[in-house]
Amino acid sequence: MKKFRLFIICVSVVLIIVILFVIDYQNLISRSNLGALLGIIAMSLNILSMILSNRNESKTEHTKKR
Length: 66
Prior knowledge:
Number of domains: 1
Number of helices: 2
Distance between the termini: 21 Å
Largest sheet: none
Oligomer: single chain
Mean pLDDT: 91
Low-confidence stretches: none
Shape: elongated
Number of strands: 0
Strand content: under 5%
């Protein structure tokens, strides 16, 4: 399951990079950029949740081995 989560993290990072190319930097806080900014926030939270899930899984595996 860790490999799948790492794949999701990589896809999220690539999507953030693509979204950064789409943003209109002259009107940063405009209605047209709202979707892009929400996409960046969503992908960032997705990365955070995958990292925390990996940590939790490794922690539970470590305690089960004892």
